[in-house]
Amino acid sequence: MKKVILLLTLLISSYSFSALKVENDKISDNYKNSIKIKEYNRIVILDPAIIETFYMIGAEDKISAIATTARSKIYPEDKVSKLPSVGHITNTSIEKILSFSPDLVLIGAMSTKLGASLKPFNIPVLVVDSNNFDDILQNIQVFGKLTGKEKEATKLYEDSTYKLKDIQEKISANPLNLKGAILYSTTPMMAFNSKSLSGQILSLLGVKNLADNLVGDKPIISPEFLLKENPDFLIGSMAIGSPEDILNSNPVVKDITAGKKGHLFIVDSTKILRGSPRIFEAIDEFYNELKNF
Questions:
Q1: Residue 189 has pLDDT above 70, yes or no
Q2: CB of 121 within 8 A of CB of 105?
């Protein structure tokens, strides 16, 4: 197990260092917040990825309330939909948060200003980033410490690292040698570069990402560039509902390899754009889809 974790640490360290710092009996974030390492029992969570991770380690009984999303679902939807709400993740009510008398508030990157607003009330706050695989893996273990679910968190951490190791070994033995992109939209056609979580999946799989040759986090892919690069596949996410949406978005798509061979498919955006351990399931799904091209 130590060899496995060491291998994965080297693999994911190419993205960045983890956001949370664990020192002695404290956990601190990049926003000057620090909390004591102990078991918390009335936690308000303002980020979907954190909510999903709590359920995956069996710590849902520690959740007092959550912030909701406008469109996307939060896994597991049938259970999360029944949780009390303190508002939308971008428009959260401080009054509602206080009404639950939380002993901890966990915030995502979209709600950092709210953390400052809660400081006068002496409520422990932690801003949890999940910008890369390293962050996601460390967050699993941190949440285990904060909920008394360390055993379950360790199991999820190990399962996730094994998934990454298995894919890396398969890619090393049989490289995909593919070129493609994960699309953010079709009109105009925009794609995620490798700084995004979805782009990091392509990097892990050894896929040449079309968006990495262009300027911007979600650059526009022109018809001329699409023809020139001739990608093997195109993956739709966000509001792209079907492969036909990609195919019909631009006449050029029918003339590239992805369009000719029908290598157009849709993925669950909540898996590839949200920094929860479900992203490791998406990596496995991606590999199984792409290896048959």
A1: yes
A2: no
